[in-house]
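I have been asked to look over a protein record a colleague put together. What it holds is a sequence and that sequence's fold in token form. Please read both lines and tell me whether the tokens look consistent with the sequence. I do not need a full report, just your reasoning and any doubts. This is what I was given:
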Amino acid sequence: MRTTKGAARTKAKRRLFKRAKGYRGGRGNLLRTVKETLIRSGQYAFRDRKVRKRKFRQLWIIRINAACRMRGISYSDFMHGLKKANIQLNRKSLSEIAIADPEGFDAIVQEAKGALA
């Protein structure tokens, strides 16, 4: 006797449509376009998880550079001074210090300048 895929197919379609909830037009209503859209959205999600990390690093560098230039040193000289002074702070924490604790960042800049001289 030939069996159909009835219940299993309905369950699979329901799973796909649930993932496509909120998509506009055929992207959320038509099975073929839902499948295409979900594949593409997965590719974008994978790619943009990497891009998010890149963008945050750019933001931290911009913030550190602005804070350094206010104190009369360039970003590259500041980072070189930190390496020479053996101060191992990452860019995320440096940008947070520059925003939340300007006096502490002043002290770090002075250490970096001293190591360069």
Notes: The chain has a mean pLDDT of 95. The chain has one domain: 7-116.
